[in-house]
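In this section we walk through a basic example: taking a raw amino acid sequence and producing a predicted 3D structure, encoded as discrete structure tokens. The instruction is simple. Fold the sequence below.
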Amino acid sequence: MAAPYLEPKDWYPTLPTAYVSAIVLLTDDRDRVLLVKPNYRDYWALPGGILDPDEQPHECAEREVVEETGLKIEARALLVVDFVPPLGDRPKPMINFLFDGGLVADPGLIRLQTDELDDFDFFSWKEASARLPDLTAPRIPAAREARQTGRPVYLPATR
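The resulting token sequence is shown next.
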């Protein structure tokens, strides 16, 4: 038996929802990955954050990089999309967009946002992956693959 038709105002609230974030891969002239160290977490992260209302993922990525590092970048190619299931205090899944931000030609221009971040540094691809939590570490090799092949990578949640 078919479900009864619901008006959009009644139907949309019944749909599953997710949080959305956007992050950026930036590398230096030695092909090392830029990570930032949030002061509210025990681990390092790629620059980025949660979308604001009415903001598109690439706009969020660009805004967050400016806020966190002072670097004005263009969120270029989409490298990775990943899906992270609800976890801990987060009751909904997270969909994350990872964009290519290109090369940081002059790391001396980085101005760290000290309200939220304690440090930044450039790491080899392997080191960068090791500094991220197990749940998000696969973003680093996936981003490298996407940069090399020119094709985005989708990372579904592991179960």
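Looking at the output, two observations stand out. The two ends are 32 Å apart (CA to CA). The mean pLDDT is 95. In the next section we compare this with other chains.
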